[in-house]
Protein 1
Amino acid sequence: MKSNKLLSQKKYLSGQGMSEYLIIIGLVAVAGIGVMSFFGQSIQHQVAGMSTEIAGGDAATEIGLSATTATAASTSAAINTTLGNYDTKQP
């Protein structure tokens, strides 16, 4: 009887650890989505520039677009959004 109780407690603790792990993974995923929403276009232009250079072309246009979108993302990230201004259009 005692061994069944220990086995039951062990399963509960294992399930609790898995739940905590899933919560952490969910938070990391949400943070990743947030970062990609700010810097996604800049990353796309960087990858396009590298692809152009590997193919033997000139990636100056893509590098310029990457710098422009990175500046826009930085400006947008610097804006303090509160409940009072969350619905205003940001740059």
Protein 2
Amino acid sequence: MDWKEVGSAILDFAPTIGGALLGPPGAAMGVGIKALAGALGMSEDEITPEAALSRIQADPQVAADLKKADIAARVEIRKAELADVADARARDVAITKITGKRDINLYALAWLVVIGFFSTLTVLLLHAVPEGQDPILYVLLGALSSEFARVLAFFFGSSRGSKEKTNILADIQHYNKGR
């Protein structure tokens, strides 16, 4: 038995935790296991897929506890996503401070995602797609759509003003050091 079986069993009433357990091993799965352990009253060291599944099947109250834990897990995953964006912005500011110029790779990659997104949309809207190739284009469109949203969030998100403020403060510090 593995975590994917547990994820399938709880997907209906705890979609965030279930989805994290169904995905590839990584940070999201760790958050899912931690949330599951907390909802089941177990430590992360003692929880196993077998123990979790047997406890879920034995006690109907566990479903309610898992719903609460699912909400908390969703918040933790969102915090991790926001921290990732903040780290990327901090990296951009640090590189600008150190080198005195912006990292062109960041902008090149962002433009590549934007151009790819609109190119795929154009192909889908204006051209007949060969038989059997449309699922590939739809998968590509889905992947590019999520990355397009991340590019927009990075450059024009709600914390864009914060990024600009940080850059201005860095420029002021650099100017004051030179005096």
